[in-house]
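User: For a benchmark we're assembling, each entry needs the component sequences followed by a predicted structure for the full assembly. Here are entry 17's components. Please fill in the structure.
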Amino acid sequence: MKIIYTLFLFLFVAYFANGQERFLTKTGTISFFSKSPLENIEAENSQVLSIVDAGSGQMAIAILMQSFLFEKALMQEHFNENYVESDIYPKATFKGNIIDFDKISATETPVKIVGEITIHGESQKITIEAIAKKTQVAVFMTGDFYINLADFAVDIPSIVRNKIAQKIKVSFRFNHKPYK
Amino acid sequence: MRNYILTVVVLLCSLQISAQDLLAILDKETPKSENIVTSTFKGTRIVNGHSIKNRKSKELEFIIAHRFGRVNTGFYELFGLDRANIRFAFEYGITDDLTAGLGRSSFEKTYDGYLKYALIKQKKGDHNFPFAVSLFGSVAAKSQKAVVGSERTFAESLYYVGQVLIAKKVNASFSFQITPTYVHRNLTAIPADPHDIFALGFGTRLKLNKRVSLNAEYYQQFDKLVSIAARNSLAFGVDIETGGHVFQIILSNAITMIEKSFITESTGNFFNGDIHLGFNLSRTF
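Assistant: Structure for entry 17:
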């Protein structure tokens, strides 16, 4: 019987250890920028969900592809229908670890995030350099990185090949608040 | 002993929060959203007739469409290429749901104006709705001079069309539309011709690959103009998407491109080779 109590105690402690230290945002921003001699393409999504577990330094991000807004409606339609195929792959996700999460202070601290990014059903290992700030009531992260379209099996037809860059710059900005 | 092992296992499991769990939390926290089905049709026309596709708000599109003569006129007419009916039009998105158009066809020097309104949208996910409904209304005015003896007033040159466009995207590669149509003409050529014609349109899009789709369209009339021995409209088209616009190549038994005309005034028999080659080109500003 004692064992059962011990078990419950551990579970209880674990629940608190985990549950109380998660930080979440539903209004994170991810934008991307494709630079080419013929055309610059830009899109922004400000409904990105991101969660950080302060206990373990783990992080997860979920991005609804249809929420990317483009300057031209036709670009947005092509993006969803032909490139990322958001009917079939509605979400892009990231899961990984923030290295040395404990060392993040209330002032801007450079950090590395290591994990796996999944776009268009294809997963790739990635290391992202970011700037982070942490207080009792918020975990803030911002940064940018490049992705290779070919790594995610996004097919660019020859007719628009010089309008779309092979390497896309992705920028993010998350202001996580405590999650209960 | 077994209990101790159990304790340790539970402890480890409970302390280890995997990132997969975090993704599950994000799934749970994703706001319920309206998922509007898009790209039911790629062009604002299926072939000749309108699809439920609207221009986006503040988007201005300039359209040049051609229908050449009949291919069965042979080599002397270069398979119809010597003749052409051309329609220029400006089409503008007043809002995302309301499009207005102004056009002019060389055939009978006809001006036309239309409004198209997206009433109901097909949705999936949390607020599922199985099909989309748009309303379409147009007025056409024939400006070609009448022959001496059969002069007409301006009112007698007018035609009206009302349509209900009911469309469904079944999956990524197949969409269809059913289009109940009403055409009214103020003046008929002979008393036996009906002023009002009801028709039912059927249109479909079959996606062949990411950028090419095959479209077909048929309008069944329930009353016909007897003076010209009108036939039902049948047309096939290929949509080719290039970066900035949709290019449509068309085979149709009608030489005209506006509703009052191709639905009720077609005389060609498609299967006898009375086929007009044509294309729709558009440029969005």
